[in-house]
Design brief:
Elements (H helix, E strand, L loop, with lengths): L4 H27 L1 H23 L7 H26 L4 H8 L2 H13 L5 H20 L12 H26 L5 H22 L6 H7 L1 H28 L2 H8 L2 H12 L6 H19 L1
Helix pairs in contact: 1-2, 1-10, 1-11, 1-12, 2-3, 2-8, 2-10, 3-7, 3-8, 4-6, 4-7, 5-7, 5-11, 6-11, 6-13, 7-10, 8-10, 9-10, 10-11
Amino acid sequence: MLSFPGELAALATACMWTASSLVFAAATIRIGSIYVNVTRIIAAAVMLFILLLLFGLHVEISASQTGFLFVSGLVGLVFGDTFLFKSYEYNSARISSLVMSTAPALSAVFGYLLLDETLSPIGIVGMAITLAGIALVILDRPDSSSSAMHPSTIGIFYAFLGSVGQAGGLILAKAAFVQGPINGFVATFVRMCAAFVVILPLNWLAGRYREPRRVFTQDRRAFWLTMLGAVLGPVLGVTLSLVAVSYTTVAIAATLMATVPILMLPTVWFLQKERLTFRAIIGAFVAVGGVALLFLR
């Protein structure tokens, strides 16, 4: 049996979210957060439905599990992700990721209060070291990908609300998995359906999602960026995150998922030719050390 399945799934989630954050940020700058956020939910729900049909995945889950997953989708994908995407309009993916790194601490508090989850002293130290390394990397690295975009207070506030939503969504999802095993794709599909039935009508009635065909016809690059992000983020990333919380504590899973800024370093170095500072490299090693402690806890 695979050792540390939850931890490995959380790291795989971070890889998916690293790519999707960059892709979604690029699409958001082109057409705005509303069209990207709503479209990726629709696309993910359709993709997951097709996967369930093609592979005949087991979909029998209890009413209470469905309820927890449905509310988890509302909290994490509607509330949390809406504010995260809104923050992209004011701050870069790098700054938003820094604020989102508060999610593990919030997850630890929620997990303790609602699920009686506790962390060992090594686990707490590992979390602290990992988050310290992440903060060191982000605060040191110049924002060359968005050189004209300076940190905004309202953008930081929106990203924090996104962090609250992510932590709450994970806790509610974990509550569903505690009751019994659920296929990860099935669980993700329930969450996406919850987001779909709320976020699409609300944005359509508000007049903010009335002409998606025209918007994406005028900017086909934004469409394909959104589709790619939907595969990487809502489909693969979210499914892996649910697998992660089903095998380990929400706080540990959230901490490993928060390593997105660390994983962004080689990406921006290779794709954007951004020079990595000595402090950023040290921060990356510190974060990796913290991750190692989480595996040794």
